[in-house]
Amino acid sequence: MAITKYSYTKKVNVAKLQHEISIDATITTAIESISRKNNDVDIYMKAALATAEETALTSLVTAHDSTPIGTPTLLLDDDGATMTRPKMAAIGRHQQLHGMLFTTAMEDSFQQRDANDDNLQYGTMTFYDVNNIQVSGTANMPKACKTTVDWEPPFDYEIMGGVCHQMQIPSGRLVLNVIALPDIPTTLGGNIRFVLSTDLRFIGVDAGLHVAGQTTSELIYSPTLHTNKIQMTFHHASGLQHDLYLGFEIFV
């Protein structure tokens, strides 16, 4: 069998055309390669094509669209300018900002209230001493040097980003880490790190901390597996009480 050349005049996308030829049911002869110079195209087949194959090849080249696979359709305004409309989440969802207030090393300080001023109870706080032993009770709060806030709303959502604001710079070290799915092992796709080792002493009061994703991550609610939980951990001086606002940008 000798390699046989078939020549056409056509604007083509070489990779796309080669794929179209390789999956055509009529063309059973294998393709060797395609060369293109401007609109002159040479298709090299591993053997001479049968009549039906050559007819199919000619029809395929004639109908070929050189637009690369995956090229989006452009939206144009009336004046011809390109318009963009990024899609951030699945159809039917809408954006929400879920804000919450709390104070490190202070029990019962977590607040996330709805339009009726009812606490939504989406967040829980725990506190640990220097030996990483959980402590509770007002009398033990001076020992607390780690504050964790678990946020776990009872619904599925897609998270886009988050913000953190403070009314004053903390008087001592206050380091924030944020992890999604903290109860799921890394090997199973959990312990996803959103924020690492960010000392809030270096975050300005006016600027705040803003983490903006380029796309959303979907988190599915499970009351047993905790697959939509986000955990915020603050390491700080023992007993440091610092007021914070955190907000999550989500789609529900």
Structure, explained:
The chain has 252 residues and is mainly β. It has 2 domains: 4-63, 2-Layer Sandwich (Alpha-Beta Plaits), CATH 3.30.70; 95-251, Jelly Rolls (Sandwich), CATH 2.60.120. Helices cover 9% and strands 38% of the residues. It has 2 helices and 15 strands. The strands form 4 sheets. The chain has a 6-stranded antiparallel beta sheet with strand order 8-7-9-14-11-12, with no helix packed on it. A hairpin with a 2-residue loop joins strand 2 and strand 3 (40-45). The protein is elongated and about 90 Å long.
Q: How many helices?
A: 2
Order of helices and strands: EHEEHEEEEEEEEEEEE
Strand content: 35-45%
Quaternary state reads single chain
**Shape category:** elongated
CATH topology of the largest domain: Jelly Rolls
> What is the CATH top level name of the largest domain?
Mainly Beta
Runs with pLDDT <50, length 5+? none
What is the mean predicted local confidence, pLDDT?
91
Strand order of the largest sheet: 8-7-9-14-11-12
Largest sheet: 6 strands, antiparallel
**Helicity level:** under 10%
Q: Any idea what the CATH architecture of the largest domain is?
A: Sandwich
